[in-house]
Amino acid sequence: MNHDEVIPKHIQEQFERRLEQWKEDDQLFVSTEAEKHVMRKVLTQSSVTLVGNSGTGKSFLSKHIALILKKHGYTVIPSNKPEDIGKWFKHGRKTLFVFDDVCGRYTLNEQIYTDWKQNLDFIASLLTDQCCKIISTCRLEVYNDERFRHLSIFKMCNIDLSSREYKLSAAEQNALAEMYFTDNTDEVKELSEKYDFFPLLCSLYYKQKLRRNVSISSFFSNPFDFFKDQLVQMYNESDTGKIQYCSLVICVMFNNTLTEENWSIKDEKIEKILNDFLAECELSKDTPIKSLKKSLKALEGTYVVNEDSTYKIIHHKLFDFLAKYFGEKMLQLFLYHANTDFIAERFIWKMTDSMSTEIEFVIQIPDKYIGKYIERLLRDWKNGYVYSVCHNRNMKSTLFEETFITHLNQRDYSEQQELVRTKDIHSKDIALSGSCYFGTVHLVKWLISRNSDINYCREDGWFPLLWASQEGHVDVVTDLIQHSADVNKCSTDGISPLQIACYNNRIEVVHVLLQCDNVDIDHCDKNGCSSIYQASQEGHFSVVEELLQHLADISKCNNNDASPLYIASQNGHVNVLTELLQHEADINKCSTDGISPLQIACNNNMVEVVHVLLQCDDVDIDHCNKNGCSSLCIASQNGHVNVVTELLKHVADVNKCDNNGVSPLLKASQNGHVNVVTELLQHVADVNKCDNNGVSPLLKASQNGHVNVVTELLQHEADINKCSTVGISPLQIACYNNMVEVVHVLLQCDNVEIDLCDDDECSSRYIASQNGHVNVVKELLQHSSDVNKCDNNGVSPLFKASQNGHVNVVTELLKHAADINKCRTDGISPLHIACYNNMVEVVHVLLQRDNFEIDLCDDDGCSSLYIASQNGHVNVVTELLQHSADVNKSSQEGHIDVVKDLIHHSADVNKCSNNDASPLYIASENGHVEVVKELLQHSADVNKCYNNGVSPLYIASQTGHVNVVKELLQHSADVNKCNNNDASPLSIASQNGHVNVVKELLQHSADVNKCNNNDVSPLYIASQEGHVNVVIELLQHSADVNKCNNDGASPLYIASQEGYVDVVKELLQNSADVNKCRNDGASPLYIASQKGYVDVVKELLQHSA
Fold first, then answer.
1. PANTHER family, from UniProt (predicted)?
2. Residue 685: alpha-carbon gap to chain centroid
3. What's the gap between Cα 997 and its chain centre?
């Protein structure tokens, strides 16, 4: 596939290298039920997210799926950033983007999260193109982060590989063990249940090549103890081992992304890092960078991978372990040098109960180093990593938060003020926003006390109170309000703190906000959604209660005119609905589409909601939307039988139709909802009520093959012969759609009109035969319908079946005495049409009948053999000739195999058509040189003329078929044989500018000066048409340059008249008489001057005109 239009070649090569590595790894893939499920989802969904604990095989599975899709024509793009999707996707090109750890490896990464949020709407729009797909992996800890739920594209379809449903079964674990440990399978099976990251352990054991040195049981009993021992051995082995050890430390220190830039000793900061770690590993600071790089190369496949010149630890689980191992051994260096995210995510001072269950491989900070740790955080804050500091895991500990503030207070006031104002380098948030988001109330108080901008907004309009309200941090909200935070301030989307709190069911925050005198309780966002609308939508009953107690406007609708009652009905929130009705919500208030709360509840099968709404006296049960659909119509269409029952109990109009005249019964019948149909019929629905096109419920059910519905309708006296406005009956439409069971049921009815025809006089059998539905045809024939009944054009069922090549239908009709010779109104028989369409099998079947007329001709006198030969259907021709078709009733259309077959069966090669065209003439006219040769070899008359005296040579010369001309001349064609106007082959070839034909004719002694009845010579006609190459050829063969026509016009005169200066030059160079005048005295110069041909005039004057 050519990707050049979108993806540059060097980038594409990077992708291909990654994919080649995936292919190599994929050789060890073991198929699982999870794989099959993921494959099904990827094919049907735009975005699939694989979730699970580290080491459960998420990445391996995503890559395996990607390789399969590549075989299905997808461009697979290993991606790191959301921008890659917009950058590399082209509409209409099947593309799969593969994201590993889509929003952070250990915890949710704020920068990556922000990037996704900013690109979310654009990416969502791209995903509407079915060619664009995403498969991503995400650690369970990251997936469960509350913020992650805002990334809706990753919630479309998620599959948790750690869950009971998709984790490896015992059989799958056994298969995995057999793949990696052929000799020790039983031993591994016993250990497989110990870890949920069993797939990772298999891979690590295999890649470490441990089989000879380390027993499986010792490795699987405590894999990370094994790696500790390995690292100790590596360090103690030699300087080479220390260098490898140091290179791993550096890779970890750069947070598992070690690029070429990280080796740059021109950067003082990087040089300091490298020197410090070399010293810590007891290596000389003069150790060459090359040695460190070389050592990483040696560790590829066992500890590290190299992806596009970036080194990473081979798996995140192993990285987690190494991070803890090296971080604790070199604590001070990591505190000073490590990546900011590494500092925020992986270090813990005092473990709280909430932390212990969610953190693995953390680096414990001893009390004596807590000051250094906080100093590092303050340095990060100062450098613009504000969010990283605010979301630090340790901030969940009140003790840490207080200790952190103590250190803050020890800074100069000016430095404190600088920190308060510092914006995050990515989100542009200040610390107050981040603290409000995470609910670090003590830090919030400190920031407020230092005059932080309490209403600070970033670019998208989010501000501290909005963050705190969203996350439900009621103490923070209270503090902000007490310090005059603007309670009605909104984001750029028009979202207020009250709205976001209502949407997220933050009842305590809602309560606090509603205590504010100036809070705008009915404020709406840009979509017109108020707080009570948001709460009703999400079913937050307590929030709705609180809002109603504060007199929220219950009738406030969104931009689509949907009310809170409407959205609660739509989503099935019965308690909210009941509360709204008790506060006199308008039960019949409709959206812009005219859909009422009752209708949307019926559409979504919210039975309890429907029940509650129908208890209200003022509900309009028969209200119709803009399409004229009533509630009963909607419920019937969707097959919601319990809703239908509820509506009918309350006397809904059972026959109320939509704008197209479609009744509830017709809708239910159309969609095959037999229980609904039964319910409607029991409530006296009109079984024969048709829509505006005359379509009845029975016709629709028959059309769609709903046999149970058909049976039910017939039991309630549905009119079996009721036709649509175009005359189509239920039986006909069932035949058309090959609904055999429906046809069978209909034919059991005594009153069915089996030969009923539509407006085109097409019967059921005709329709079934036309479409090749042989089982339907058999069913009809068993009920003795008229086998020869024709449409308005005289087309019989046998004709239609023959035309479309339905040989089984043809056979069946013939068994029931179908008239094989019954012709269409233009005289075309079933055999004719089968020959025309090259239906060889049908022709063969028809020719087995005793009563067929093989030489029957249509109204134009064409036989079956003529039609087949005309279209070059050689197998049909052979079949006809084997059954003694008249060989001379055929066509010669240049199909050489047909011609040979006809000649083989003694066809008359000189037999002419009705207008005296011989086979050789026709072949010559059409340039069929192979046919010409075949005919001439079998003594075709080379000079036999058409009725206007045109010979084969003449017609070939006229049409420029030079190879045919050569063939005819080699077989003694008369080169000067003229037509009835005395025009020769040379004359017509000259007229049409066929210079190669002219050459061929002249080489065979064509009369170069032979004139037609008007005394026009070949040279004259070539000059008149401006064919300069022909003129040159004729003059070279002694054409009379001054030969005039009956009017005395010479070739030079006519060329001057037409303005062909090149022809004029050629004639003058060959001694044309420049002053030779026409009979009326007009000279070449006169006519060229009159016509305004300046170049011709100049040429003539230069030759003494």
1. PROTEIN VAPYRIN, ROLLING PEBBLES, ISOFORM B
2. 43
3. 55
Radius of gyration of the chain (CA): 45
Per-residue pLDDT of 573-604, as tens digits, reads 999 999 999 999 999 999 999 999 999 999 99
DSSP labels for 316-370?
Answer: HHHHHHHHHHHHHHTHHHHHHHS-HHHHHHHEESS--HHHHTT--SPEE--GGGH
Domain-embedded: residue 403: no
Q: What is the domain range of residue 86?
A: 9-167
Strands 347-348 and 363-364: parallel
Mean local confidence (pLDDT), 902-920: 49
Residue 821 one-letter amino acid: N
Whether the per-residue pLDDT at 781 is higher than 50: the answer is yes
Residue 830 CA, chain-centre distance (Å), reads 44
Flag whether 42 is in a domain: yes
The whole-number average pLDDT for the span 204-225 is 62
Strands 304-307 and 310-313: antiparallel
Residue 1031: per-residue pLDDT: 95
| Residue 900: burial class (beta carbons within 10 Å; 0-12, 13-18, 19+) | middle
- 788 φ, ψ (degrees, to nearest 5): -110, 15
Q: Which residues contact 325 (CB under 8 A, 6 or more apart)?
A: 227, 228, 231
Q: Are 562 and 530 in contact (CB under 8 A)?
A: no
pLDDT in tens, 11-67: 888 899 889 989 988 888 888 898 999 999 999 999 999 998 877 888 999 999 999
Residue 1015 lies in a domain: no
In sequence order, what DSSP letters do the residues of 731-764 get, joined into one string?
HHHHHHTT-HHHHHHHHTSTT--TT---TT---H
Q: How far is CA 491 from CA 129, 410, 463, 964, in A?
A: 30, 36, 8, 83
Residue 565 buriedness (CB in 10 A; 0-12 / 13-18 / 19+): buried
For residues 120 and 948, give the distance between their C-alpha atoms in angstroms, rounded to a whole number: 78
- State CA 843 to chain mean position distance: 43
Q: Is residue 108 part of a domain?
A: yes
CATH of the domain at 129: 3.40.50.300
Query: Total domain count for the chain?
Result: 1
Instruction: Determine the Cα–Cα distance for residues 544 and 533; give it in Å rounded to an integer.
Output: 9
Average pLDDT over residues 670-699: 97
The residues pairing with 51 across neighbouring beta strands, listed in sequence order, are 138, 160
**Rounded percentage of the chain residues whose pLDDT exceeds 70:** 88
